[in-house]
Amino acid sequence: MKLLINGSTHDVADGMTVAQAVQTLTTATTGVAVAVNDEVVARGAWETTALRDSDRVEVLTAVQGG
Question: Model-level pTM?
Answer without folding.
Answer: 0.88
